[in-house]
Amino acid sequence: MTSPLMPTYPVPSVRFVRGAGAELWDDQGNRHLDFLSGLAVTSLGHAHPAVADALAQQAQTLLHVSNLFGTEPGDDVARALDTLLRHGNADASGYQTFFCNSGAEANEAAIKLARKFGGRGRHTVVSAFASFHGRTLTTLHATGQPQKWEAFQPLPDGFRHVPWADLGELESALDATVAAVLLEPVQGEGGVNPATVDYFQGVEALCAERGILFMVDEVQTGLGRTGEWFGFQHFGVQPDVVTMAKALGNGVPIGACVAKAEVAAAFEPGDHATTYGGQPLATAAARAVLAEMQRIDAPRLATSAGAQLRAGLEPLDAVGAIRGLGLLLGVELIDRDAKAVASRLLADGLVVNAVTPTALRLAPPLNVTDAEIDEAVAMISAALDAVGSSEAAEA
Ligand SMILES: *Cc1c(COP(=O)(O)O)cnc(C)c1O
């Protein structure tokens, strides 16, 4: 036994001990720029003082009381989410929140809600190939990546998968057993593939016509990252159910399944629960995150920083298409092995990841500075030159 941890992750080459804003320091004292944000989690940067203060204060006040009782931070966060989800749509009906501890749990709640809302016999959830919705058995089956299912059969029934961004294929999948459609506004793990206005509006119309729930997984895209509060807001739709997690706690584990009140009404006391979900430590962090994001207008920052990052990368010879919205970008490399480039960048002091064999994913904090973006672009340019195209041929 060489590690005290299960071998579910590759053996790490770096151990980080401290962070501040977009910067991280490892146990050798090396500084890194974090352009991954723990996978779109630390959207306000590391060790944000407003979040740290909220945590410290709440830890000295009240950590936990169980969901048999209410707490103030939870109600505040749920109200703020309702406002942000209806942002720019005066006609939208109100949303109610179920708090949990992760993205997978938020999607589990959404899937249970869809089944309860649909009623017996109407339980199928349709999702897209190349999607990612979590690693629990149920959300693994919602995840449209059959190679990830293989070792864990049998998976729970009631899932169907369709090609991404193909409205005709989706329509043919909507038989009488379908309770909900579950889609990401930008497929994150699938390679950073944004939806389009036509696709999302088409899905919304089909769902409305047939009484099917339109559920949007905003776990990676939510809370400003794409340049809107939520990714779906780029496409002029108003989903029935929205799930989120990652950025909501800026690193403190919290997830939320949020549904229009008329949909949420399908749940009765006893239908769903969690011991920790919504506890005041996590919701106090989320309350501070949302207040700070509103104060700095995080979506606007993501839009301008995303444009600057794109403009810096586009002229590089080894950069092909750049996909994504705001500060969730997939950078397609020409003739380069993305894994080799990402490891080279890590050694040079820039944290990114290879989202596909040929594309890097960039997701810096939304308050990243102009100077940090320039520094990252220079490092990426140097790494693309250093790795060269020969390694792509070998890989
Ligand atoms: C990360 C992610 C999840 C799973 O979240 P966990 O907190 O890891 O369970 C679900 N959906 C999307 C779109 C994600 O990016």
List the helices and strands and how they pair.
Elements: E1 16-20, E2 23-26, E3 31-34, H1 37-40, H2 49-59, H3 72-85, E4 95-100, H4 103-118, E5 124-128, H5 137-142, H6 146-149, E6 159-162, H7 167-173, E7 178-183, E8 186-187, E9 193-194, H8 197-210, E10 213-217, E11 241-244, E12 255-260, H9 261-264, H10 280-296, H11 298-313, E13 319-325, E14 328-333, H12 338-348, E15 350-351, E16 353-356, E17 359-362, H13 370-387, H14 390-394
Parallel strand pairs: 3-15, 5-6, 5-7, 7-10, 10-11
Antiparallel strand pairs: 1-2, 2-3, 4-12, 8-9, 11-12, 13-14, 14-17, 16-17
Helix pairs in contact: 2-10, 3-10, 10-11, 11-13, 12-13
The structure holds pyridoxal-5'-phosphate.
Pyridoxal-5'-phosphate binds at residues 102-104, 107, 132-134, 184, 188-189, 217, 219-220, 245.
Radius of gyration: 21 Å
**Unique bound compounds:** pyridoxal-5'-phosphate
Could you state the CATH homologous superfamily of the largest domain?
A: Type I PLP-dependent aspartate aminotransferase-like (Major domain)
Structural domains: how many: 2
Spatial arrangement of strands, main beta sheet: 4-12-11-10-7-5-6
Strand fraction: 15-25%
Q: Give the rounded overall mean pLDDT.
A: 96
Largest sheet features: 7 strands, mixed
Q: Count of helices?
A: 14
Q: What's the CATH class label of the largest domain?
A: Alpha Beta
If classified by CATH, what would the architecture of the largest domain be?
3-Layer(aba) Sandwich
SS class: alpha/beta
